[in-house]
Amino acid sequence: MLGCENLQHPGDELIRSRAEPFQEAKSRPRTSVIALLISAFLVSSTTPVGAQEAAASFDGYSDTGVEVTIPKGSFRGLTDKDRFPEGVEEAWYRYYIQLTNFQPKSSGKLPGLSGLYSHTARGCFPSGPNSPGWSARGLFGAAGSNGAPEGEIPIGSYIYHLNQPGRCGEAIYWDDTSIRPDRWYCVEGYVKVNTPGSADGVVTGWLDGTERFSRSNFVFRRPSETHVGVRELWLDIYYGGRRPTRETLNLRIDEVEVSTSGRVGCIESKTTVVATSGSGLASIASYDPGTGDWSLAHFDGSSFVSKSLTRYQSATQWGSHLVGDFGGDGRDDIASYHPANGTWWVSRSGEFGFKTARWATFSTKDGWNAHLTGDFSGSGRSEIASFNISNGTWWVSTPRSSLDRPEHAANELQFSWFQQPGSEWRDITASQVRHEALAPIQGNANYFDTSLWGDFDTATGWTTQLAGDYDGDGKDDIASYHAESGNWWVSLSSGTGFATTQWDRFSTGRGWSNHLAGDFNGDGRDDIASYHPGSGQWWVSLSTGSGFTTVPWERFNTTTGWSTHVAGDFNGDGSDDIASYYPGSGAWWVSLSTGTGFSTQHWGSFSTTRGWTTQVAGDFDGDGDDDIANFHPASGTWWVNRSTGNGFDIVRWAG
User: Fold this and answer.
1) I want to staple 320 with a disulfide (CB 3.0 to 4.6 A). Which of 93, 162, 361, 371 is the partner?
2) 585 to each of 12, 102, 617, 642, how far by Cα in Å?
3) pLDDT digits (tens, 9 = 90+) for 322-381
């Protein structure tokens, strides 16, 4: 177990007193792991003298963290290193970051891994034969630079290696990757040093669990430098360069963990999705990875009433949770993908709760960049379209009935379900499943038949993929945006496959912060609304059935700082609108569709402006107008913006 005993700076004694005990990660086998609460690395340069207690008690991502300040006229906010044992040749790390007051005019460094043995691999001192060393820190760029939307910060990797193009390391910005203020992001990294004499060193980076960068041709050590390995976790927050920051910069760091035996992964937070009952009323389904429990909050006429639905025996490491009527009985179900074993599990909604079964096993477990729900075949049941970036293929999982495959259902039930209202969980064995008479579920579907539907020539670089019925034929299609070219490609469903053609090209390829699908002109075909914070402009790509006609629909006077944009029919006129939340003032603005443009009005405000996580649209009260449900984890409360057709009545519904 690694500890803090190797940290070297004047605050060591204070640091140890504030550090929480290091814990082995129970869900992953590994030989050496440290879970470091970042307040353990509070140094004298992080905050002014006298402010350290406030920094130490900062509310972090899940417990307490630290706010790092780079004062105006300075370079450094935080620096510390935690030393590995000798002989480590690969390591993984993870931390959470939130930008609070952070609009840099130039680039700088973020935490990463390194092998520092002398003065080299930093400060424009490259490795030399008698002074070996390497580093692979994180990188941030100037606000709005390198293709990032205005106000957002591009991130990447800053690497000192033997084949770097200059003296000062190599700055590599991750493609189409930026972070915006006022929300937490999960950043992960991996480094493997090269085999001596070979160019096979690896650096990989992830943001919020999605791989954003990987290269496997680095040289970190010379043939004779067999002692050079992964030596330390380098917690470095640094501005510049040669010139100090012209304004004070603030960010927050929390939940740092490093491993030498496997990827750490992001902390699984509560998953919230909108589900629809048989009556058509929207409800909130929430998954708690701490317990493996699904619960459902439904409207009882005045508030949310919560009930338990089902429990997953494997509580953690789920990839995607999707909602759809997979059984075809008019009730929404939940499909969950577990990438560790490539399995899909579906929780079928019934009168007395959920019944959960394994519906599919993918032979290819990794590389899935998108899982989208829709009725792609026009069967009346929801299906799942999955895109794999390793080969650019689309696969569609269609629900089928075990009546066609009677051998399928007998051994695939997960062993817990509700028998009747209010009953306890019942654990059974596979043999009992085979012999007990279970009443058939309406709709009968109980497995996925997965087949190849499409093949993209370009496998990577797709930044947005949205399901919708773009030609109005009753079958869902997929629109894919490629930021490098600015092209929209639409994969139209034939019922058994996708035919993909280019539908539009944006002259401005990058910098778009949001793309939302919806029928914004009410013609029965889905369109796409795109927001560009550089200009504050909403552009709507109206579907003609065979292409997009993209026109400007609205311009916001306040261009940046918006944390949420959701589409829904908020006035019940049959055309979709857009609701936008601005945490700086706590205001909700709704852009109502006129069919040819948006008319934006202030619909309501929150007194608590920040800290909202889930903000989802749905008709929660059944009046025909979409509403917005908002969850505030610090207070554990749900607040619902009930639409009146021309404003929001904001009420507390639960907690």
Assistant:
1) 371
2) 40, 18, 21, 20
3) 988 998 888 888 899 988 889 999 988 776 567 888 999 999 988 888 899 999 999 989
In this structure, is the dihedral angle defined by the CA atoms of residues 25, 177, 396 and 441, taken in order, positive or negative? positive
Nearest of 255, 202, 214 to residue 20 by alpha carbon = 255
**DSSP label of 39:** G
Q: In 3D, which of 440, 369, 436, 444 has the Cα closest to residue 401?
A: 444
Other C-beta atoms lying within 10 Å of the C-beta of residue 545:
12
| CA distance to 125, 137, 263, per residue, from 191 (Å) | 21, 10, 11
Q: Which tokens in the block code for residue 435?
A: 């012999």
pLDDT tens per residue across span 128-178: 999 999 999 999 999 989 988 877 899 999 999 999 999 999 999 998 899
Return d(Cα 349, Cα 327) in angstroms, integer: 9
Most confident of 78-82, 410-414, 565-569: 565-569
Cα separation, 333 vs 380, whole angstroms: 14
Distance (Å, rounded) from C-alpha 403 to C-alpha 413? Answer: 16
Is-contact 476 469, C-beta < 8 A?
yes
Q: What is the 3-state secondary structure (H, E, C) of 603-636?
A: EEECCCCCCCCCEEEECCCCCCCCEEEEEECCCC
Distance (Å, rounded) from C-alpha 86 to C-alpha 35?
20
How far apart CA 383 and CA 464 sit, in angstroms, is 19
pLDDT tens figures, 442-486: 457 889 999 999 999 998 888 899 999 999 999 999 999 998 899
State how far the Cα of 267 lies from the Cα of 34, in Å rounded to an integer. 15
Tell me the CB-side half-sphere exposure of residue 21, using CA atoms within 13 A: 3
- Alpha helices (H) in 238-287, listed in sequence order: none
Q: Is the pLDDT at 433 greater than 90, yes or no?
A: no
Tell me the three state secondary structure of residue 265: coil
Contact 445, 381 (CB under 8 A): yes
Distance between CA atoms of residues 240 and 244, nearest Å: 6
Q: What is the DSSP letter of 16?
A: H
* Separation between Cα atoms, residue 260 and residue 580, nearest integer Å: 43
Whether the CA torsion 361, 367, 369, 375 is positive or negative: it is negative
Strand-pairing partners, residue 616, are 629
Q: Is 201 exposed, middle or buried (0-12, 13-18, 19+ CB in 10 A)?
A: buried
Q: What is the C-alpha separation between 647 and 153, in angstroms, rounded?
A: 33
Provide the strand spans (E) within 290-361: 293-299, 304-311, 320-324, 333-338, 343-350, 353-361
